[in-house]
Amino acid sequence: MVNIRTVEIILLIMVFILMSMDASAMLVFHPQPAAEHQHDGRRMAKVFQLTGHENSRISLISPDLKRRELSADNGQVKFNPTGIDNYHALLATREFQGVQEVAIRYVYAFGKPSGSSPSQLTQLSKAELEIIPDPLPREHWHYKAGHKAAFLVRFRGHPLAYNSVILYTSYASILEATTDTQGRVLFKLPDDYPITQAGNNANPAAEMMLHVKHTDNGQQYASWLSADYRANPEHWKNTQLGVMVTTGGFLFGAFMTGLGRRTNHKKT
Question: CA nearest 103: which of 225, 219, 228, 227?
Fold first, then answer.
C-alpha cells in the first residue's frame, strides 16, 4: 500500500516547485488520483491536471494516430479509454506571451491489441518543437531513479542539435544537458526519493518534467514533456541481499561450530 503521507509530501513539493517557477508560465500535464483503476477490473477515465490550460487547445492521439479534441474543466482533462491497447499522446498547445508552446504526455491505456508500434506515435510530428522519449518505456516498464533515460528534441521534424534541455523532478531536483548532433540528450535520472520501501508498489510514482526552448526567425517556441518515474529498486534489493548474506554467514558459522564440536567429541 502507498503511504498517504508520502503522497502528500510529493504533492507539497510539486506545489512549491510550481509556485517558484510561476505555474502560469508552464504548460504541463500532471496525473490525478482519479486515474486509478477500479477494483472490479474495469478502468475509469484517466484524469490529468493541465497547468497553464487557459487558451490552450487539447487533443488526444490514439495508437492508430487518430486525433480527437478534449476540453479542460478548470484545468482538469479527462478522457475515457479508447479501447485500443498501447500508448496514447495527450497534447496541449497555446500561444503565451508571444511564445508558441506545447505540452505532451504519453499515456498507456489498455484495450484490444492495436497492432501499432509506439514508435509510430513518437515519430508522428505533433508540434513544431517537441521532446520525444527515445524510446518509450515498454509496457510494465518505467523510468527509474538512478537509471539513464534518453530523449530526442525535434524542431519541424528535424533533430535540434546543441540545444539546452532542463529536467525538473517532483522531489525538487534540477538537471540540465545539451542535445548532441542528432538532437539526442541523455539524463541519469536523480536518485532523489527521500525514503524507499521494499517493492515497486510500496513507493508512489514521482514526476519529471523536461523543458526545451528554441527561437527561429524571431519566433519563440517552448515544449514540455512530463512523465513519471519510480524508485530505484536497487535500494531494497541491496538491502535484501545484505540480509541474505548476513543470514547465510550466520548459518554457515553455526554449521561450522556444530561440526567442530562433533569432531572434538569423536576424538575424545
Answer: 225
Distance, CA of 223 to CA of 164 (rounded, Å): 12
Q: Are 23 and 144 members of one domain? A: yes
H-state helical runs in the chain:
4-21, 118-123, 234-267
Q: Which domain holds residue 53?
A: 4-232
| 193 and 73 housed in the same domain | yes
Query: Strand, coil or helix: what is 129?
Result: strand
Report pLDDT for 105. Answer: 97
Find the largest Cα–Cα distance for the chain.
97
Residue pLDDT, tens place only, 86-140 = 999 999 999 999 999 999 999 998 888 888 889 999 999 999 999 999 999 887 7
**What are the beta bridge partners of residue 94?**
101
Which long-range CB contacts under 8 A does 74-80 form with residues at least 24 apart?
75/49, 75/50, 75/51, 76/32, 76/47, 76/48, 76/49, 76/50, 77/29, 77/47, 77/48, 77/49, 77/50, 77/53, 78/34, 78/45, 78/46, 78/47, 78/48, 79/45, 79/46, 80/45
My answer on whether 226 and 179 are in the same domain is yes
What domain count does the chain have?
2
Is residue 249 domain-shared with residue 205, that is, in the same domain? no
Domain CATH for 35: 2.60.40.10
